[in-house]
Amino acid sequence: MSIGFSIFLIAAGAILRYAVTASVSGIELETVGLILMIAGIIGLVISLAIIFLRDDGRTPRPPDDYTAPRV
Questions:
Q1: What distances in angstroms separate CA 67 from CA 55, 56, 61, one per listed residue?
Q2: d(Cα 6, Cα 15) in Å, to the nearest integer?
């Protein structure tokens, strides 16, 4: 889940939870909005964790302690 889609889920959930006053029989839109907001927040946290914790080779690594034998 990308950052953009996570923000979209949070926004759509907030709209359903706080702004929509219509009622649908069998579905509580406030609950659906809350679920979407929670899913968006979890997706955003995971996306940010992946971005900040991945090792993409920019950090220098210490050299190996051994040298490869030449054949």
A1: 24, 24, 16
A2: 14
What the block records as the tokens of 53 is: 């914790």
pTM for the full predicted model: 0.73
What is the 8-class DSSP label of residue 12? H
Residue in the structure block whose two tokens are 């609950």: 31
Work out the burial of residue 19: count CB atoms within 10 Å of its CB; fewer than 13 is exposed, 13-18 middle, 19 or more buried.
Answer: exposed
**pLDDT per position as a tens digit, 11-70:** 999 999 999 989 889 999 999 999 999 999 999 999 999 988 886 666 666 666 666 667
